[in-house]
Structure to design on (325 residues):
């Protein structure tokens, strides 16, 4: 190994074999802020070979990644909830036609076609389940948590929601009734949680940060 | 296709389930998202069943259960691409960069 000449190590790739490790870090004067891991380099190679082959272009991959990172997550639902808290007209539209009001904020998609928003009040707590499978409003809530798909959650949400909620950390007073909503391929539900006390001066942006995924499924109160 | 994550990808469970945090996909480095997008794009482009990739992923996880998820993912991805005759290990070796492309 030619210890003193790392820059030339880069030419090794031209020889077609990379199974011996070039650990640039080991020399104590790394050339790159973070060393390129072998697996990361391999993914880059796969991409460049397939792009060169005309399988797809880099922009298409960029679009897919951007969608994972920005457009699939509970944040979208949190924006909907926060808007409803600060804008009574929006809230009225949201409760009257969830799909349309959510689309106003730019969130829609195949798993969010028929959204119904149900409002928590001091007297009524809403809980969403899919007893048959795992129907879930992806455009607003992202991917479902693992427990949402579990047989225990799916059956107990209907049979004994109060005990289930307590086990999940949400103990409801006896005088609060629980309304359970069974999602399906046709209708997906989103809970509009109550606005937390003491947030009168909060901005809409601050409020977004207060909304959790679990509160929009109904297993948590804010 | 749209840029949506297809159902059969997002709903994988067991050993092949996508790592997630508070319902969102969890990536510890950008290349992991890239690897995920590559598999989705290939399967879509060639109109393959998602299972064509998933079975390889399950196999890759099983052969090294302690290996990080997206490293197994990349092993499965390479196996799929080479298996389809789209490239060869030698061609991949030659294309493997030693420095990170500027982000």
């Amino acid at each position: 190994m030619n210890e003193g000449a790392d820059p030339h190590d880069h030419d090794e790739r031209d020889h077609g074999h990379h199974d011996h490790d070039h650990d640039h870090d080991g020399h104590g004067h790394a050339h790159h802020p973070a060393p390129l891991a072998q697996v990361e380099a391999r993914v880059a190679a796969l991409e460049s070979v397939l792009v060169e082959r005309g399988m797809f272009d880099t922009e298409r991959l960029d679009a897919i990644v951007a969608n994972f990172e920005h457009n699939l997550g509970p944040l979208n639902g949190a924006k909907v909830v926060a808007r409803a808290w600060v804008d009574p007209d929006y809230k009225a539209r949201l409760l009257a036609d969830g799909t349309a009001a959510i689309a106003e904020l730019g969130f829609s998609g195949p798993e969010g076609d028929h959204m119904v928003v149900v409002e928590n009040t001091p007297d009524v707590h809403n809980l969403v389940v899919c007893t048959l499978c795992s129907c879930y409003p992806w455009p607003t809530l992202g991917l479902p948590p693992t427990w949402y798909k579990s047989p225990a959650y799916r059956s107990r949400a209907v049979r004994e929601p109060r005990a289930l909620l307590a086990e999940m950390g949400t103990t409801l007073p006896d005088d609060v009734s629980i309304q359970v909503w069974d999602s399906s391929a046709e209708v997906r539900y989103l809970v509009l949680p109550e606005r937390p006390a003491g947030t009168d001066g909060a901005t809409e942006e601050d409020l977004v940060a207060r909304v959790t995924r679990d509160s929009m499924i109904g297993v948590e109160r804010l | 296709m749209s840029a949506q994550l297809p159902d059969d990808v997002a709903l994988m469970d067991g050993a092949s389930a996508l790592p997630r945090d508070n319902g969102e996909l969890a990536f510890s480095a950008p290349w992991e998202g890239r690897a995920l997008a590559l598999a989705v794009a290939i399967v879509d482009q060639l109109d393959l069943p998602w299972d064509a990739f998933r079975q390889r992923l399950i196999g890759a996880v099983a052969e090294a259960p302690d290996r990080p998820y997206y490293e197994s993912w990349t092993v499965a991805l390479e196996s799929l691409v080479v298996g389809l005759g789209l490239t060869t290990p030698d061609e991949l070796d030659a294309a493997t960069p030693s420095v990170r492309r500027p982000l």
Remarks:
- Chain B touches chain A through 49 residues (CB under 8 Å).
- Helices of chain B lie at 7-10, 30-45, 50-63, 69-83, 89-95.
- Residues 30-45 of chain B form the longest helix (16 residues).
